[in-house]
Amino acid sequence: MSTPQRKGYLNLSLTPRSQVPRSAAAWGKAIAGPPLGLLEDNGPGCGRGGEGLEDWRRFRKVGLLDEAAMERRDRQALADRVSKLQSELLDYQHHMGLILMEKTLLAENFDELRKSIEESQELLKREQLAHLIAVAEAEKREDNLRKALNFEKQSREGFARNSC
């Protein structure tokens, strides 16, 4: 089975590219000149005062009928567009480089801050543990002092009872 060939906008040629004519007319860019009736003195353009002929002369003066000039303009416009796109690409690449540099700088700062926070948390845990130990020791001393105070009170009471 064979696939049917497409019909439509693709007009593929079987000849190699090197043999395909390169003129604008071959690509459908040929510019038609003024209609022959407008160029004749007694033609249909003559009744309107030759306005059509003047239009064609203005077209020719501006360069709209010159195929080579139009192709040069197209190439220049294309070259300008390519240049603009290249400069835009370079700008994007420059900004991307700046963003990457900033990203690495921020990542380094983040790592430093993370390490600093970890050290601070570890120091805080140590200080909390030391505080708990100090509080426990203070409570032990307080208990020992209470016991000593109670013993002293009992000793005085016992001494006072024995001396009277």
Automatic annotation (TrEMBL):
<keyword id="KW-0539">Nucleus</keyword>
<keyword id="KW-0175">Coiled coil</keyword>
<protein>
    <submittedName>
        <fullName>Uncharacterized protein</fullName>
    </submittedName>
</protein>
<dbReference type="InterPro" id="IPR040418">
    <property type="entry name" value="CRWN"/>
</dbReference>
<dbReference type="GO" id="GO:0005652">
    <property type="term" value="C:nuclear lamina"/>
</dbReference>
<dbReference type="GO" id="GO:0006997">
    <property type="term" value="P:nucleus organization"/>
</dbReference>
<feature type="coiled-coil region">
    <location>
        <begin position="110"/>
        <end position="155"/>
    </location>
</feature>
<comment type="similarity">
    <text>Belongs to the CRWN family.</text>
</comment>
